[in-house]
Automatic annotation (TrEMBL):
Gene symbol of the encoding locus: glgC
Residues reported to bind alpha-D-glucose 1-phosphate: Y99, G164, E179, K180, S190
Parts forming coiled coils: none
The protein's enzyme class: transferase
Domain Nucleotidyl transferase: 7-259
Domain of life from the UniProt record: Bacteria
Pfam families, A to Z: Hexapep_GlmU, NTP_transferase
Protein name: Glucose-1-phosphate adenylyltransferase
Marked site positions, Could play a key role in the communication between the regulatory and the substrate sites: Q59, W98
Amino acid sequence: MAKEMIAMLLAGGQGSRLYALTQKLAKPAVPFGGKYRIIDFPLSNCVNSGIDTVGILTQYQPMVLNEYIGNGQPWDLDRLYGGVHVLPPYQKASGSDWYKGTANAIYQNIPFIERYDPQYVIILSGDQICKQDYSDFLRFHKEKNAEFSVAVMEVPWEEASRFGLMVADENDKITEFQEKPKNPKSNLASMGIYIFNWDVLKKYLIEDEADPDSENDFGNNIIPNLLKDGRNMYAYHFDGYWKDVGTISSLWEANMEVLDPEHSGINLFDENWKIYSRNSGMTGHKIGNKGLVENSMVTDGCRVDGHVKHSILFAGVKVEAGAEVEDAVVMGGSVIQAGAVVKHCIVAENVTIGKKAVVGAMPKDGEKGVATVGSGVVIGDGAIVGPNAMVNKNVEGGEEQW
C-alpha cells in the first residue's frame, strides 16, 4: 500500500557550535523547553500533519537519540506499516560508508523509501525548533504543480547574507538560489525543509551520486541542478515560529522565549498542536516552604527550596535552600546546592553546582554571551564560572573559570 508522502528526517548533526552540550549526544537529542528534546518538534509536526512514516537518519553520537526514539510510541509512530525507523549508515555489499552529505544520506536510503512507494517525500531537519503544518505545505506543492518546494521565511535584509536564499517571482516560482551571498537579491531564507516529487528526487540523487566532484549536498548540488534543468520549483512562505538553535546563544534565547508565548510566537501550551515527548516517569514536582518560583517552567520530579526566576528546570532538577536561579536553562538531573547562584546560563544534564558557587552573571548593557556547563560536570563549592565560560570538565572549589 503506497503512502502519499513520507518524511526523511536528517538527525545526524554533530552540532559543534553547541560545544559542551553536544560532546556526548547528537544535536537533535539536546534537551529543550523543560520536557522535550529538539527532535520532538519535527516528529510531532509529522504526526499532527498526518504523516505516519518517518525515516530518521542518524550518525553522530546516536545512542541517546536511538534510545529516546525507541519504537516511536510517544508520537503515535509505533505502526505495523510505516511508523518511525532509525536509519544509521550500514555495511553494504559494496562496503561501508558514512553519510557524506545531506543528499548522500537520502541516496543511501532509497530502498527504504521505495518500500512505501510515495508520491512525495518531505526532507526535514532534526535540529530546528519549529511548529509547522506540513499538510498545508503539501497542499501548496500540489496547487503549484511543483516538482520541488522549499519552505522559506523572510529575514531582515541586513541578516540575509547569513542564509541560503531563494529568489522567486510574483507567483513564488524560484528563479535563482544564493548560498550565503555577499550581495543578496532576496530575503527569503531557506528553512532547509523540502518537498520533492519522489520520481524527481530519485533521479537527481542517482545522478548526484555518480558525479565524483559533487559534495552530495542539497544546497550545494541538488537544488542548483534542479534550477539548471528548469524544473518547477516553488517557495512556500512560512510565517510561524522557526529557529535554528545551532549556537549556545540561540538555544538559550529559544528556551527563554518559551516562557513568553504571547510575544515570542512559540506556544508549548497549545492543546490544538501538541508537541509530544517521551515521559520521564518521575513523580510530580514540589516547591518547598521556602521555595519561590517566578515565571518559570518546572517539570516532573523537580524539588525547589530556593529561588527560581524566569528559568526552565528539566525533569529531576533540585534547587536547594538559599540557591538562586535566574534566566537559566537547567537540564535534567542537575543539582544546584545550597547558596549557589546560577544566572544567564545553560546547565547540561546531571551537573552538580556546589554550595555557594557562582555560575554565569546577568549581562550588563551591550554584553552578550551565555555561560555553559557540560553534562556531568561538578562545579565545586565556592567556585566561580564567568559569564561567557564554556565548561566541560570539573572545577575545583574556589577556582575561577572564565
